[in-house]
Amino acid sequence: MNICSDMEIAALTHRGLVREVNEDRHYVKCLDEQTLLMAVVDGMGGGPAGSAAAEAMREALTEYPVAAPHPEQALSNLVITASEAILAIAHDNPALEGMGTTVTATVLSNGTAHWAHVGDTRFYVFRQGRLIQVTTDQTMAQLLVEEGRLTPDEARTHPYGHLLDQCVGCPDCDPVTGSLPIEPGDLLLHTTDGLHDALSEREIIDILTSSHASLEKKATALISAALDTGGNDNMTVVLATI
């Protein structure tokens, strides 16, 4: 089976209605007939700083070694390499101090999704009508959720939702990694916070269950729905299904 020819893939990004620059990036590439790499990246630091950090992370992903025996470790290594590069850029250019980025990257190979994650971008699996959030946000709001002081829906709009525990380009960047088996019919969803903070889980599910819509139309519908809430942030979505 050629996974890339059998999969439907869609990716879409939007600057939003408020920000002057789109600091989001995405990356989707078939590495060989059996391996797909997909990622979303959300730069921070404002303007050129955030864009430069996001681009450094995206460029690092282009160096993923085809047929890596340990995909999670390979992804983690690329994230750490990008983090070191971003720190070096900021060190050499004080105007870019504070630059950094989040990233969620997934390699789908041999029926398993291997992922690495830093920050508050997300990887979901939509399976049989259920939206499963695979990654956990590394934010102060998420800590309040885990303490029972906020509900997940309250965390979407809480001010602490934008306070990150770590980032790519922050000292001691330590990506979280994991893997899970993928089942036939699963839809893999990657988002930046401009999208998943704008929409409730129910709203995302309703769009994804549009049975007659292509993935491209579903991606467009997700972006449009997020824009309808105000479009206060850059937003990016990557969808893949087999």
H/E element string? HEEEHHEEEEHHEEHHHE
Question: What can be said about the biggest beta sheet?
Answer: 5 strands, antiparallel
Class by alpha and beta content: alpha+beta
N/C terminus separation: 11 Å
Q: Return residue spans where pLDDT drops below 50 for at least 5 consecutive residues.
A: none
- In what order do the strands lie side by side in the largest sheet? 1-10-9-6-7
Tell me the helix content: 25-40%
Number of helices: 8
Mean pLDDT: 93
The global form is: globular
Give the DSSP E fraction (strand runs of 2 or more residues).
25-35%
The total count of strands amounts to 10
**C-alpha-based Rg, rounded:** 17 Å
Question: What's the layout of helices and strands?
Answer:
Blueprint lengths: L2 H4 L1 E7 L9 E9 L2 E10 L2 H15 L9 H22 L7 E10 L2 E7 L3 E6 L2 E4 L6 H7 L5 H6 L18 E6 L5 E5 L1 H4 L4 H8 L6 H14 L6 E7 L1
Antiparallel strand pairs: 1-10, 2-3, 3-4, 4-5, 5-8, 6-7, 6-9, 9-10
